Amino acid sequence: MTSPKIVSVEWGHIEVEGLEPGKDFKLYPGGGREWNWSETGMRHNPGIRPEDVEELLTHGATVVVLSRGMDRQLQVDPATLDHLEARGVETHVAETTLAVELYNKLAATQPVGGLFHSTC
């Protein structure tokens, strides 16, 4: 199963192949959906937590790309990086436009998942 390609990203707007446009996304092999932060009580700090990435792993991602937002205001909880490392998951963290570029490159050859935040 391949991961959907991100067609475009700009402040507050992401377009993903096969999905309705939105602001933030969870993408994984075989699909994705809009990322609703309130599901896990996520905030900019401490940021992305282990429960935020679990859905990516459940759908078979062996590589994960985490975006920190356009201005890198979204943090990644160190427990999340430890969780992914313990599961043997290659992990990349980057500003959103760079994260999208890397994700699309990886999606061509690997089962990649990602969390993408299109503002701050």
UniProtKB/TrEMBL annotation:
Pfam families: DUF498
Organism this protein belongs to: Paractinoplanes abujensis
Localization terms from the record: Cytoplasm
Keywords in alphabetical order: Cytoplasm
InterPro entries associated with the record: MTH938-like_sf, NDUFAF3/AAMDC
GO-annotated cellular components: cytoplasm
Name of protein: Mth938-like domain-containing protein
Primary site of residence: cytoplasm
